[in-house]
Structures are given as structure tokens and as C-alpha cells.
């Protein structure tokens, strides 16, 4: 059965980007969150981000209007039970994700595929708590979703081939490229990216460089579009720390220990761009 409708859980930076690309690709989108303000903010962000594409001449104003019309919002999670594909993009905490799947499960249609946009948590473990581990997958988008080409597809131990094929086809319809990753902590992208960001924080912590010199070095010396500290602020320092903890716990290797400075920033509530302060000051 072809996927036509998509439920997105969480209207934060990943959730609104996911809703944006699905709506532009012609899918009906139902975006849910626990707060009306978050949903309203997401819709105005999507409007602004699609407008960037209109102003570059990549899509027409009509495309924009029909994409926006395809996005509906709800505060009532069970409404997502009517969709063909559910993408959970809530906070990167396993207990939160598990509670969401538990609440949603009784309302799902039998054919609905469940996915999580988790950047690091075990897909097999998340799937095992649901009634459909064979129809459960990791579906990991990169930030900013409308710009980044890659989507990681992660099969849990029980995921069936039909589910994998259906999601692979969806990635093609979005005009993106799928990479398959095995279900080990942080998959491919974050297994490599996060230790680099963590090492940049150690470089700062040990006084080898300052924020600007570290970022400048990696931008001009390694041709990265953003320096690692700027990128950490962009991703969210809480998310970076959560992923380092998953690597550290899951692989039991001290090379993944989170830098104490990263922990301190998160404890201070300095979470990067979203909180107004991280390695840089955005206020
Ligand atoms: N929606 C739509 N378009 C957007 C956008 C958005 N949210 N954000 C940026 N763009 C578009 C801009 O309109 C612009 O389009 P053109 O090329 O047509 O001009 C283009 O993207 C570049 O944007 P800007 O000119 O504003 O800024 P930039 O050149 O500095 O690029 C960037 C911004 C694309 C974010 C770039 O800095 C970059 O690639 N940074 C690295 C991002 C990255 O590494 N992401 C992965 C993070 S890891 C992850 O997501 C996994 C995880 O689980 C943590």
C-alpha cells in the first residue's frame, strides 16, 4: 500500500523540517505537539523556509500554497493513528519516545509504519516496546531538513523487507538519498560527527584554541561549512550531550566520554541557538 499520509510527532526544528519536505513532496501531513504555541511557531517557520525556496525560483508560489494547505496540526496524539506513516521527532530521551509510542499504539491502523527520527537510540529496543516491531524503523533526517540530502534508514532486528522498501521509496519521492545503517549506537553520521564535536569542546576546554580559532580552523582548514562549535550550537548542546552519552554507555569505551565543559553548558541551560546562548551568544 502506497504511503500518502504522514503523522509527525514534535514540531521542533526536526519535526517542522520533516513536515516541510513531506508537504512539498505531495504527502498529507498531520503535525502534532503538546503545545499550541509550538505548532503555530512551526507553521510560521515552515512558511518562511518555503518562501526562501520560492524566492530562489526553485518552486512556485502555487507550490508553496498547496504545500502549506497539506499541513494540518493537532494537539491530540491519537489523531495520528489515521495516517500511513508516523515519524516521531520528539525530544532525544528514550522514556519520552517510549511513552509516545505506547499512547499512540491503540489508535493505529494495522498497516501504519512507525518510525523514529532518533539520532542515536537503539531502534531494536524502541521497536520491541511496540505491537509492530516488523513495521518499525529508524528514519533519521539531518538538520536543516529542507537542505540536507541524506536520510539514514536503520532497520531494527525484526524490521521486515516490505517496511524497508516502503521507506526507501519515500526517501526517493522526497528527492533525498537514503543511506542504510546498522542498528548500533548513533548509527553512521553521529558515530563520526559527535566525537568530532566533542573533541572540539575538549580543544576549547584544554585551552588549545578559543571558540573562534577552533571554528575558523575547521572551516578554512578542513572546508567544513560550519565550525564544530557553531554546528554544536545549531544542533543543540543537549542533543549533542545525549548522543555522546548513548555512545559512551552503548560502546563502553572511554574515548566517547562527554567533555565536562559540554556537560556544564547543558547544566547551565546554555543549549545553543535555541536557548539564545551556547558557545556563541545569540541574544
Ligand atoms: N529551509 C530551507 N532552506 C534553507 C534552510 C531551511 N531551514 N536553511 C538554509 N536554507 C537554504 C538557504 O536558503 C540557502 O539556499 P541557496 O543555496 O539556494 O542560496 C542555502 O540553504 C544555504 O543557506 P544560507 O546561505 O542561509 O547559509 P549557509 O550558506 O551558511 O548554509 C547551512 C547554511 C546549509 C546550514 C550550512 O552552514 C551547512 O551545511 N552547515 C552544516 C549543517 C550540518 O552539518 N548538518 C548536519 C547536522 S548533524 C544532524 O543533523 C544529525 C543529528 O542527528 C544531530
Automatic annotation (TrEMBL):
Key words, A-Z: Oxidoreductase
GO terms of molecular function: 3-hydroxybutyryl-CoA dehydrogenase activity
Pfam families, alphabetized: 3HCDH (PF00725), 3HCDH_N (PF02737)
InterPro entries recorded: 3-OHacyl-CoA_DH, 3-OHacyl-CoA_DH_CS, 3-OHacyl-CoA_DH_NAD-bd, 3HC_DH_C, 6-PGluconate_DH-like_C_sf, 6PGD_dom2, NAD(P)-bd_dom_sf
SUPFAM superfamilies (UniProt xref): 6-phosphogluconate dehydrogenase C-terminal domain-like, NAD(P)-binding Rossmann-fold domains
PROSITE patterns from the UniProt entry: 3HCDH (PS00067)
Keyword Oxidoreductase: yes
TM segment ranges: none
Domain 3-hydroxyacyl-CoA dehydrogenase C-terminal: 187-282
KW Nucleotidyltransferase (keyword) present: no
Start and end residues of each 3-hydroxyacyl-CoA dehydrogenase NAD binding domain: 6-183
Entry EC number(s): 1.1.1.157
Family indicated by similarity: Belongs to the 3-hydroxyacyl-CoA dehydrogenase family.
Protein name: 3-hydroxybutyryl-CoA dehydrogenase
Organism encoding this protein: Paracoccus onchidii
Taxonomy of the source species: Bacteria, Pseudomonadati, Pseudomonadota, Alphaproteobacteria, Rhodobacterales
Amino acid at each position: 500500500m502506497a504511503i500518502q499520509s504522514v503523522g509527525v510527532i514534535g514540531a521542533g526544528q526536526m519535526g517542522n523540517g520533516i513536515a516541510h519536505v513531506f508537504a512539498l513532496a505531495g504527502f498529507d501531513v498531520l503535525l502534532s505537539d503538546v503545545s499550541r504555541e509550538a505548532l503555530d511557531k512551526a507553521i510560521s517557520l515552515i512558511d518562511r523556509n518555503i518562501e526562501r525556496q520560492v524566492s530562489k525560483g526553485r518552486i512556485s508560489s502555487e507550490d508553496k500554497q498547496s504545500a502549506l494547505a497539506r499541513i494540518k496540526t493537532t494537539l491530540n496524539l491519537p489523531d495520528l493513528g489515521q495516517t500511513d506513516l508516523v515519524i516521531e521527532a520528539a525530544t532525544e530521551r528514550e522514556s519520552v519516545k517510549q511513552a509516545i509510542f505506547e499512547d499512540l499504539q491503540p489508535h493505529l491502523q494495522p498497516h501504519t509504519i512507525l518510525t523514529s527520527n532518533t539520532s542515536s537510540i537503539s531502534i531494536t529496543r524502541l521497536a520491541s516496546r511496540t505491537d509492530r516491531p516488523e513495521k518499525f524503523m529508524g528514519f533519521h533526517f539531518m538538520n536543516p531538513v529542507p537542505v540536507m540530502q541524506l536520510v539514514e534508514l536503520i532497520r531494527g532486528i525484526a524490521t521486515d523487507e516490505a517496511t524497508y522498501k516502503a521507506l526507501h521509496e519515500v526517501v526517493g519521492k522526497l528527492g533525498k538519498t537514503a543511506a542504510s545503517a546498522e542498528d548500533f549506537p548513533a548509527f553512521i553520521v553521529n558515530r563520526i560527527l559527535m566525537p568530532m564535536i566533542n573533541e572540539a569542546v575538549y580543544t576549547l576546554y584544554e585551552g588549545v584554541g578559543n571558540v573562534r580559532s577552533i571554528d575558523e580552523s575547521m572551516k578554512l582548514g578542513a572546508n567544513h561549512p560550519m565550525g564544530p562549535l557553531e554546528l554544536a550550537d545549531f544542533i543543540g548542546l543537549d542533543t549533542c550531550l545525549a548522543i555522546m552519552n548513548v555512545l559512551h554507555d552503548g560502546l563502553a569505551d572511554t574515548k566517547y566520554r562527554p567533555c565536562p565543559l559540554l556537560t556544564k553548558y547543558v547544566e547551565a541551560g546554555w543549549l545553543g541557538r535555541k536557548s539564545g546562548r551556547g558557545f556563541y551568544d545569540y541574544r
